[in-house]
Amino acid sequence: MRHKRTVMLAEIQQKREKMIETAKKNGLASEETIRCSQELDQLIYEYQCAIKKEEEHKKRMKISIRQMILLWKKAVV
Predict the structure, then answer these.
(1) In 33, 62, 66, 67, which residue has its Cα 20 to 30 A from 44's Cα atom?
(2) Domain CATH number, residue 6
(3) Is the dihedral of CA 43, 45, 48, 49 positive or negative?
(4) Could you tell me the end-to-end alpha-carbon distance of the chain, in angstroms, rounded to an integer?
């Protein structure tokens, strides 16, 4: 998962740099700059969703492990 996040962050940085370059060249209100900004927003949103999904998965795993430990303790006793 960390590799995926690293790749996503690299894509975000590249898109940010392209947007800045486009804004300097064509202006903040140009269609190309706005398109880059929207694409950057989408990448950031996807990154945030991936982080949230990963955190939810970790939480479910913790709960599952706790439940297994409790069941194992009951089986042993």
Answers:
(1) 62
(2) 4.10.280
(3) negative
(4) 38
Domain that holds residue 23: 1-76
The CA distance from 7 to 51, in Å, is: 13
Distance CA(9)–CA(7), nearest Å, equals 5
| pTM score, whole prediction | 0.76
Question: Tens digit of pLDDT for each residue in 47-72?
Answer: 999 999 999 988 888 888 888 887 78
What's the total number of domains in the chain? 1
The 3-state secondary structure of the chain reads CHHHHHHHHHHHHHHHHHHHHHHHHHCCCCHHHHHHHHHHHHHHHHHHHHHHHHHHHHHHHHHHHHHHHHHHHHHHC
The answer on pLDDT for 1 being more than 70 is: no
